[in-house]
Specification:
Elements lengths: L2 H7 L4 E3 L2 E4 L9 E5 L15 E4 L2 E6 L11 E8 L5 E8 L10 E8 L2 E6 L11 E7 L7 E7 L10 E8 L2 E6 L11 E8 L2 E8 L13 E5 L2 E6 L11 E8 L2 E8 L13 E5 L2 E6 L11 E8 L2 E8 L10 E8 L2 E6 L7 E8 L2 E8 L16
Antiparallel strand pairs: 1-2, 2-3, 4-5, 5-6, 6-7, 8-9, 9-10, 10-11, 12-13, 13-14, 14-15, 16-17, 17-18, 18-19, 20-21, 21-22, 22-23, 24-25, 25-26, 26-27
């Protein structure tokens, strides 16, 4: 079997900066670049690939700097994988907000589950300058075969500078949206909001706040959700030193959400920015700390926490096999089953992505991925899915 064919038969592992990469060997460090995706109408400053999400055969790629509706109004692209020999990723739609205007940054964050896409637009001014908004798009699989805007979500207590939509996460019928600048627990303490779909509409269900909220924490700068559990990042919490960071777990019972745990790494230190990137699946949390210095200043680390009952414990600390100062390993993270992907956007000046696999009770690096035509400043791994 050719290397290309081997990659084609593997699940897509990473989509970032318009690159689709697949692991092509275990445990040998190897890679196979499956596709390089570009926006057909791409322009300078569009930041295509700035945020990505993947579900099944659909890839969602944000371009928050797109100018179609005005400077930095933003856009998001949908591509679908079509099987064949070889298969290929085909552009399906370019999504823009119906009321999009300059500065909205539509595509500040993206998430997808099934036939629903959630897109953050942290620069929307409806509730004040940069109060933010989030948009839901739904795919009409049985009819027109198109993506249409289904809802515009806003918090009840929007305020200027909240940046609602700076982070989004989606599970079936549940949306979690971060507002890193919300001042409910102090200036820029941050908040996250839960919406639930029912009766043909999205309804606000809860506002999540850290029990120990403090000014400048930026709680809600990152969010993740899996079933009845939400994980909220606050990378500027000072628990182990200035901007050491923390992540908070919330559990839902009925329609009531309550804080279950505050996650901290055992070796946390100031400047780590733990929870600058987070991912969650089936009682396992993957958390990036791109500022961690264990392998050099800002080399970065990743941490895995696992739930046992209602107790969360650190299971592993992940580091790149070739870690170096300034890499910012853990600046972006994603997890699916027993495979984790962590970005290192400044690796060797061009960026890279590392795949880890959980087997035999241990996490081990399986592949180091890089672009075939890596260019200085590309920041490959700045977003992963």
């Amino acid at each position: 079997m050719s290397n290309h064919s081997l990659c084609a038969t593997r699940a897509t592992l990473v989509a970032t900066a318009a690159l689709l990469l697949a692991a092509a060997g275990s445990p040998v460090l190897a890679q196979c670049e499956f596709a390089k995706l570009l926006a057909a109408d791409g322009t300078a400053g569009a930041a295509f690939g700035g945020n990505v999400a993947v579900a099944g055969d659909v890839a969602v790629i944000a371009a928050p700097g797109d100018d179609e509706r005005g400077e930095d109004a933003g856009a998001t692209y949908v591509l679908r994988f079509r099987a064949g020999a070889p298969g290929e990723w085909v552009p399906e739609a370019k999504l823009v907000a119906a009321d999009g205007v300059a500065g909205d940054r539509f595509g500040s964050a993206v998430a997808i589950t099934g036939d629903v896409i959630l897109i953050g637009a942290s620069g929307v001014d409806d509730g004040g300058s940069e109060a933010g908004a989030a948009y839901v798009f739904r795919y009409d699989a049985g009819g027109s075969g198109t993506w249409t805007e289904d809802a515009k979500l806003l918090p009840a207590e929007a305020g200027a500078g909240d940046q609602f939509g700076c982070a989004v996460a989606l599970a079936p019928d549940v949306a979690v949206i971060g507002a890193r600048g919300a001042g409910i627990g102090g200036s820029a303490a941050g908040a996250a909001f839960v919406f639930r779909y029912g009766g043909g509409a999205w309804q606000p269900e809860a506002r999540l706040l850290a029990t120990d909220a403090g000014a400048g924490d930026h709680f809600g700068a990152t969010v993740a959700v899996s079933s009845s559990t939400a994980l909220i990042g606050a990378a500027d919490v000072d628990a182990a030193g200035t901007d050491s960071g923390a992540a908070y777990v919330f559990r839902c019972s009925g329609a009531d959400w309550s804080q279950e745990a505050k996650l901290l790494p055992v070796d946390g230190a100031g400047g780590d920015h733990f929870a600058a990137a987070i991912a969650l699946t089936d009682g396992v949390a993957l958390i990036g700390a791109p500022g961690a210095d264990a392998n050099g200043a800002n080399a970065g680390s990743g941490y895995v926490f696992r739930r046992d009952g209602a107790v969360w414990s650190q299971e592993s600390r992940l580091v790149a096999s070739d870690a170096a100062a300034g890499d910012e390993f853990g600046c972006a993270v994603s997890i699916s089953g027993d495979v984790a992907a962590l970005g290192a956007r400044f690796k060797d000046g061009v960026g890279g992505v590392y795949a880890f696999r959980h087997a035999g009770g241990e996490w081990a690096e399986e592949a180091a991925l890089s672009a075939a035509e890596g260019r200085v400043g590309a920041e490959l791994g700045g977003s992963v899915a």
